[in-house]
Amino acid sequence: MKIAAPLCLSLILLLPGPAYAKGCIKGAVVGGVAGHYAGHHGVLGAMAGCAIGHHRAKEHEKEHSQQDPG
Q: What is the pTM of this model?
């Protein structure tokens, strides 16, 4: 217990600023469900879905910023 409190405090202080995770929640839900049905790997599917959803959201945002010149 003496080690856990300082360790938790140091981990909290090392966390980066706000996370910009557009597309992550939707991708995680879809990936989690797909992973669950494909061999009970829901957590792995959720992690992969989050990464893919975030990547696609960034591409979509970049695409729209290039089309809108102002």
A: 0.63
| Residue 34 belongs to domain spanning | 18-67
pLDDT at 33: 92
Position 61 in a domain: yes
Number of Cβ within a 10 Å radius of residue 11: 9
How does pLDDT run across 6-56, given as a tens digit for each residue? 665 666 666 665 666 778 888 889 999 999 899 888 889 898 988 998 889
DSSP string, 10-50: HHHHH--S----TTHHHHHHHHHHHHHHTTS-HHHHHHHHH
Task: Domain count for the chain, please give it.
Answer: 1
Contacts of 33 (CB under 8 A, 6+ apart): 42, 45
